[in-house]
Amino acid sequence: MWLNPEEVLLKNALKLWVTEKSNEFFLLQRRRGHGDTGGKFTGLLVGALDSVLDSNARVTPFRILLQMPGSQVSWTIACGAAVGEMNRHWDWLVQNLLHSLSVFENKEDVASFVKGKVKGLIAEEVRGRQAAQEEEPEKFREALLKFELCFGLPSSEKLVTTYSCCCWKGRVPRQGWLYLSINHMAFYSFLLGKEVKFVIPWAEVTRLERVSTGLMTDMVRVMTRRCQLDFSMFLSLDEAFGVIGQLADIALRRLLDSEGLELDRVLQQSSNITKRVLEEQALRTYVLALFRLPRGERLQEVALCSVWTPHARCHTTGTLFTTDSYLCFASRDEGHCSLLIPLSEVISIEKAESTSLLPNPVIVSVRSKKAFQLIELQDRDSLVDGLTSRLRALQWKHSMFRSKKSLVYYSNTTNFLCHWCYRLIYCKRLWEDHFPEYGRGVHMFRTEKIQKLVAMGIPESLRGELWMTFSDASSELASHPGYYSGLVTESMGQSSLATEEIERDLHRSLPDHPAFQNVKGIAALRRVLTAYAHRNPKIGYCQSMNILASVLLLYTKEEEAFSLLVAVCERMLPDYFNRRVIGAQVDQSVFEELIRDRLPELAEHIPDLSPLSSISLSWFLTLFLSVLPFRSAVCVVDCFFFHGIKAIFQLGLAVLDANATALCASADDSQALMILTGFLDQVKYDEDPSPPTPHPSQSGEEEGRPPVKQHTLITDLIADSYEKFGDLTVRQIEKLRCRHRIQVLQAHEDTTKENALRVVTPDVSLSPENLADVYDLFKTEHFINLYWGDGGTTLALQHHDPGRPYVEQYRVDRVQFKSLYMLLVPWLCGFHTDTVAHRTFTLLDQDRDSLITFREFAGWLDTLYFEELNEKVRLLYRLHIPPALTESEDDPSPLKSPQLSTTRPLHVELPNGEMRDFQEQLKQMLKDLAKEKEKDVEQPVPPMNQREFIQFCKTLYSMFHGNPDENELFQAIATVTSLVLQIGEVGHRSRCSGSEVSSEGGAGDEVEDDHREGSQEDHPVFSTEEDGERKEGTSKSSGSESQSEWAVSYAQILASLLTEQQLVNFFEKPMDLSAKVAEAKVKQYHERAGLLMLQQGTS
C-alpha cells in the first residue's frame, strides 16, 4: 500500500534490507529472512524476530524508497507483505513518474512532486476504502459527495456517517441530513425552496443530552457556547447518540489534552476513524473496563459461546472476548458469571471433536492443571488459529525473562499486619470451601457468590492474594520478573520534583499505624512510590498515592504492592492521577447524574449538587481510605478490587441515601459536610470494639430530628449498596463517562480562557467582548491547522500542553498567523500583504521559536486599533528594519529599490502658500510631539537605511490603494517621501564633509549659529547614529563607511508624516474592531478551507 512519505536516514541500516530492484530515483527492497532459501544466520535471526514481535512493531517484508542521487536521505513511499502488490506499485512508478522526473533540475522539486503524487493516490484509496467499508458503499459514496459540495470543507475532513433527522428551530422542525465527520457535525436541509445548513466543530460542543419535550418524547440535544440544537426523528436514536458522543469525546481528547488523555493508537490518526472503528472502540472500552485490563490491550475476536461451569453443572451462555494477552468470558447478565484467563497461564488451546451435544468445542488448558471447555463457537478454526499464534509469541517473549530473578527488598510483610484484628473462622471457612468448586487464582469463576463473600470482608490472610488475583497484577508480576528491582536500582538516588513530594508525604501516610512508625516501613514505601514515579513520569507522584501504597504494603510483599499500584493508577482508575485529575472530575460529574437519577428527592432538595461532589471527590481519589475508619475502609478496597469503580459509585450512593433525610434538612454546605463526615466516622467493622462517634445529625430531640443508631456496620452498608444500586453496570458507567468527559474538558477550557484574558486585559485597550472574540479566533485557527494541516505542523502545535502558562497554551505558526492577519488587519496592502504579514510575524516572534502566543497577538492588534499615531508609525517603522526585514528577503513587488538622492531645495509648503525652511518646520513638529501625553519610554529603534526606507514607502503606497481618499494620500506620501529623502541627503552630506568643515574656518559664523541652536547632528531630527548595534543580517563596516551611509531615524520620519494632515487623519481614524471580528467569524472557516483546498490541489 502507498504510505505518507517518511524519512529514512539509513537506507540499509544494520543490513536488514536487500535491494531487489533499483533505478535512479526508486528502490524496491525486501526484508532479510523473508524469501531467503540459503538459511543464512542473519536472515534467520531477522525473520525470527519479526515473527515474534508484537504486531504493532512488526515490519512489512517489502518497501519502496524514494531516493535522491547523492543524498543519504530517502523516503518510504510504499510497503506491503505481498511481492505481487509491490511489483504493481513499482510498475506504476516506472511507467507514470520515472520519465517525468528527469526534467527537474532541483532535487527538492523532484521530492515534492513525487510526494504530492503519492498523497493523491492515498486520498483516492482512502475514499474508495471508506465507501467499501460501509454497509451500503454506493449510498455512502453519494452522501460523501453531497457533504463535500454542501459545506466546502477540505477533502481531508473525513465523513464518518450520516443520519436522516429533524433539526428543530423553536417549534419548527426542518427535515434533513446530519453529517458526522471526524472534526465536525453538519446539518443540511432543503425544503420548500429554503436551504438551511450549518457546521459545528466538535471542539465547540459543551454538553450532550437526551431530552423529552412536549412535542417530542426523545430528542438529542447538542449544546455549544453559542447555541442549542435539538435533533429528533432518528431511525436509530441510540446509535446516533452514541456516535455523536464518541466523536465529540475523541475530538476533544485529541485537541485539548493529547498528552494527559492518551487515545488508542487507532484513534490517534483521525483518518483511521470510521463508523465500524467507533463501534469496535466502544466495545473495546467496555471490555477493558469490565475486566480491568491494561489499556494497551487490543480487542481481537468477539464470539458468542457457552462455557462449562462446574459449580453450576451446566454450560453458561455468554460472550467470549479475546485480546492480545487475555481470554475473557462474560455471561449474558453482567455480573452473573465471568472468567478471565491470561494467555501467560495457558498451556494449550485445542479443538475437540464436535458432537450434537457439544458443537464446536475448544479446550483451554492452564498451568494449574485445569481445563476450560467452550462450545458453540461459530468461527472456531480462525479463532483457535489466532489464539495459538498469539500464545506462541507470548511464550517466546516470556522465555526471554525466565533467567532473571526478582530481588525482594522487603518480603516479611506479615509484620505489617496487626494481630489485634481477629478474623471470623466462619468467613475463612467459606473461602476455603469456595476455592475447590470455583477455582483459585486469576482464572477462577467470578460469580454472584464470590461477590457476597467479598462484601462480607476478605480474611486478612487471603486479602493480599485475592487483591492480586482480582486485579490480575499476579500475572503481570509473573510475566516480568526482576522489573521492580530494576526500577528501584535506576530510581534510587535520583532527585526530581516527584521525589521531593514523596519525601514530604512519607510520614503522613497512615502515621498512626505501627508499620509506618519505623525506618523499615518508611523505606519500603519510599521505594514503591519512587519506582512508580520512575516508571511513569507523566503521572510521577500525586497526593493520595501514598495512602493507597501504604495500605497495599500492609497486605502484600513490596513487589506485589508495586504491581497493585500500577494496576490501580493505570487500569482501574484511568486518568485519575494525571496532572489535572481529569478522570476523578469526570467520575464526579457522572456521580452527580447518578444522584439525580437514583436519588431524585435529594436532588430536588439540593438542585446544585456541586458541593456534594466536592465532598465525595476524596471518596473516589482515596477509595474511602481517608474518610472511613481504617478497618472499614479496607473492606471497601476489597470490593473495589473485585468490582472496580462500580463499587465506589454504589457505596457513595448508599452513603447519601442513608443520610438523605438529614441532608435535605441541612441549612448550608458546611452542615452537609458535618453530616457526612460524622456518619462515615461511625461506620465500624464487625469486630471493632472502639466506641462509636456521635452522628452530627443526632443533635437532640428538641430539633425535631429522628434519633439514629450509634454506629453502622460496613458490611451492612456494602450489602445495602449492592441491594439498592447493584443494577448499575459497567456499560452504563462507560457511556456516562464518555458524555461527561466532554463537559469536564470544556470546563477546563473555559477556565483557561478566563485566566488568559485576565492576564492579557491589563496590557491592552480591547474591550472584554472583543478580547474574548479574538481569543476564540486565535484558538480556532490553531484547531483548523490540526483539522486540515498537511502533517508539517511542529510538535509544539500538534500537542496541546495544559501545563503551559495560560496565554501560551495556544500558539500559532507563520501560516496560521498570516490567515489571522488577512482577517483582522485594518489596512490590507494588496499584493504586498503577504510580505508585510511575514515581517509582522518575524517581529512578534521575540523568542525565535517560530510561534506566537496570544499575548503577543493581542498586543499587536491593540497597537493597530487603539494606540496613538506615533505608536502605529513606530510599528510600521520596525517592520522595515531588522530583524523584521532582512537583507536576503525576496521582494515580490515588481518595483525595485534604486539608490535615490535629491538636490531639490529643502523647504515645506504650508497650506496658506507660505514657504518655510524644513529645519524650522521639523523643529516645531518635535516641540508639538513633546507636548503630547507622556508614555513609557521605549528603547530607541535603529535608523533606517535607504533600501529599508524605500520598502517602507512601498508599504504605505500599498496601504492607501483603494481608499476613498487615495489621490490625496498618494500626494501626501509623495511629499513626505521627498522631504525624508532630502533630510537623509543632508545628513549624508554633513557626515561626509563634517571632518573637513571642522578643520576649515571659512564657515565660522554658520557653524557658530548651528552650535548656538544645536547642531544638526545633535538634534534628534537629524541624528542618525545608532544607539546599539544593528541586528543580525546587516553588514558591519568601518567607522568612516558607517558615517557616510544614508540613513534617517524614526523621529525624522514621524515628524515628516505629521506635516501632512491627510496622513494624520488616516492613522488617527477610529476603526471598528467589533465589526472586523464579526466578519472574521463568518469568513475564517471558509477562507481557510478554500486556501487549504487550493494548496492540496497544487501539491
UniProtKB/TrEMBL annotation:
Sorted UniProt keywords: Cytoplasm, GTPase activation, Repeat
Stretches assigned to the EF-hand domain: 832-867
GO CC annotation: cytosol
Record field: compositional bias (Basic and acidic residues): 1009-1020
PROSITE patterns: EF_HAND_2 (PS50222), TBC_RABGAP (PS50086)
An example Gene Ontology molecular-function term: calcium ion binding
UniProt name for this protein: TBC1 domain family member 8B
Organism the protein comes from: Oncorhynchus kisutch (Coho salmon)
Gene symbol of the encoding locus: TBC1D8
